[in-house]
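REQUEST ID: PR-0412
SUBMITTED BY: lab tech R.K.
PRIORITY: routine
TASK: structure prediction, single protein chain
INPUT:
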Amino acid sequence: MNSRKANSKKVVASRSHQRIRLDHSSEKAEDYVEAVADILIDKDECRVVDLAAFFGVSHVTVTRIVARLVGEGLLETQPYRPICLTAKGQRLAVESRRRHQIVHDFLLAIGVDDATAAHDAEGIEHHVSPTTLSKLEKLTADLNP
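STATUS: complete
OUTPUT:
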């Protein structure tokens, strides 16, 4: 392989790894805002204890993540008060749920059982590009007229 092709492949690989790292850094935020939105629908308020139970993690872990997400403008809370989504957090929750649903529907359309589709969609939704997501949505619509 000539050096030009080798360098081109390295650049593509580097960009791919950068995108994956960025996707991983936003995964937790997406999962948390989606969970807060779901808990608010079920219970009208969300507290650290609710998120700890939802994710099966410690109160300390949730407190740290919530503090980070408050700093990112996704959540609002005060000590001993419920957790709320900001407008930015609500938009992220809606978009995360939309991506999850498109991936889940696609997996069902190609014959994956519901339990597996739900599990797989939880990981795929964070890494699928907008271009691929659009193609999955179109293909799913074509498979299920």
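NOTES: The radius of gyration is 18 Å.
REVIEWED BY: pending
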